[in-house]
Amino acid sequence: MAVNLRNGVSMPLIGFGTFRIKGPETILKCLDAALKAGYRLIDSAVIYHNEEDIGSALGELLPKFKLQRTDLFLTSKLSPRNQGYQPCIDSVKRSLGLLKTNYLDLYLIHWPGTGGKKVDNVVNIQMRQESWKALEDCYDKGLIKAIGVSNYCLKHLEEMKSYARTFPHVLQVEHHPHYVQPELVEYCAHHNIHYQAYSSLGTTVDDNRNPLLNDEVVKEIAKNHNKSPAQILLRWATQQGIGVLPKSLDPAHVEENIALDFLLDEKEINRLNTLDTRCKYAWDPSIVI
């Protein structure tokens, strides 16, 4: 499954997320399982501190699976501490070096704020504008095939209209049945921005239980399809054209998470939509000016 971005770049709808996956051996094992299962999008970020290990692993794994660099879609993201024109340029070039590639398929501004600055400091506005100009210049030079933002709210996207030469090709945000963002989805559809979700499977909370994977409605639908709750949550998104980035250290789960060749009916989609409790499991970008 793939989606064509506004500029014609083809982007897989299902990617392999690498948040909190670190260490050469762990990265190699996970990417081996991911490529074997059919993943072709690898999502990383500067703050994940795993770009170098990913680059090294891919150098070993691409020949193993008879793949070329062009068969992959590599994403990375700007650290909040690298906001600003020249720091962003330098960050892109550093990511290229660590990932051992001469271009990135997608690069995102990871957060609307600036590292070390309070969320209500107006310098955040200036810094993300400078960062976007840097990404536009990298895009123009072919260093990045598509550019976008992560954790931006409607107010941040609307603000970009005053300075962006190229509007984002991709928006990556938290999205799952416990936190549905219909206005943002509609906005992206209207502006032809691909909407990509992270935290599609929720997260484990203090009592070591995942409220989303253990939601009774999710489990009921999973039982009806003879699928796992994770597969239901991922299919709920992809069936609506929303990209997903599941991650796992377990090769069996890695394989399961991309096996989404089944359909939910309209009633099931609507039942999952009604589970929205406005419950975020990740950080809240709305507090950034």
Which descriptors apply to this entry?
alpha/beta; 289 residues; two-stranded antiparallel sheet; 39% helix; 7-stranded parallel sheet
Topology:
Blueprint: E1 2-4, E2 10-12, E3 16-17, H1 24-37, E4 41-43, H2 51-64, E5 73-78, H3 85-98, E6 106-109, H4 123-140, E7 147-150, H5 154-160, E8 170-174, H6 182-190, E9 194-198, H7 216-225, H8 229-238, H9 251-258, H10 266-273
Parallel strand pairs: 3-4, 4-5, 5-6, 6-7, 7-8, 8-9
Antiparallel strand pairs: 1-2
Descriptive overview:
This protein is an alpha/beta fold. The protein contains 10 helices and 9 strands. The strands form 2 sheets. It has a 7-stranded parallel sheet. Strands 1-2 form a two-stranded antiparallel sheet. Helix 1 (24-37) runs parallel beside helix 9 (251-258). The mean pLDDT is 97.
- Molecular shape: globular
Order of helices and strands: EEEHEHEHEHEHEHEHHHH
Average residue-wise pLDDT? 97
Q: What is the overall number of helices?
A: 10
Strand content: 5-15%
Distance between the termini: 36 Å
Sheet with most strands: strand arrangement: 3-4-5-6-7-8-9
| Uncertain ranges | none
Task: Write down the Rg.
Answer: 18 Å
Helix proportion of residues, in percent?
25-40%
Which structural class do the helices and strands define?
alpha/beta
**Count of beta strands:** 9
The largest β sheet comes out as:
7 strands, parallel
